[in-house]
Amino acid sequence: MWYRGRSRRDEGAAAVEFALVSTVLILLLIGIVQFGILFYQWVELTHAAREGVRWASLEYPAGSVTTPGTVRYKAAQSSPGLGLTDSDIAVSPDDPGIDDVGDPATVTVTHAVPIFTPFMQGLFGTEDGTFQLHSTATMRIE
């Protein structure tokens, strides 16, 4: 079938253009999904650090029964989707008996997020296929 204004050379051009454009669009979509996963896990990590330091600041003064292990547990339980372990959570000060009201308590949470696309691994420069996310929160002991 002949269309007015189109020559025989243009018949397959749309398929070739779609193949070229769709590749770029798919890579862009995969990048958006990976960024969304990283952003979600960063928000959860920040939430875990804030919940841990909130617990430490309210329950951490001298003479309390709160330990760094309890603070780590509270931080990990506030973001169960991340699967945080004790080694992912650092609590400062380590000894709750030496601090007074007004001293700072700090919780740092680190988590390795797997990157599922090879080109994103090259973009972030990771060798093990993960991206390290960190979040630190500090509050005064009350």
Structure description:
There is one protein chain. The chain is an alpha+beta fold. Helix content is 46%, strand content 18%. The chain has one domain. Strands 1-2-3 form a three-stranded antiparallel sheet. Helix 1 packs antiparallel against helix 2. It is rod-shaped, with a radius of gyration of 25 Å.
| Uncertain stretches of 5 or more adjacent residues | none
- What's the gyration radius in Å? 25 Å
Helix content: 40-55%
Structural class: alpha+beta
Mean pLDDT: 82
Pattern of helices and strands: HHEEHE
Which secondary structure elements does this structure contain, and how are they paired or packed?
Elements: H1 13-59, H2 68-78, E1 89-92, E2 104-114, H3 118-124, E3 130-140
Can I get a quick summary?
The chain has 142 residues and is α+β, with helices and mostly antiparallel strands.
Distinctive features:
3-stranded antiparallel β-sheet; alpha+beta; rod-shaped; 142 residues
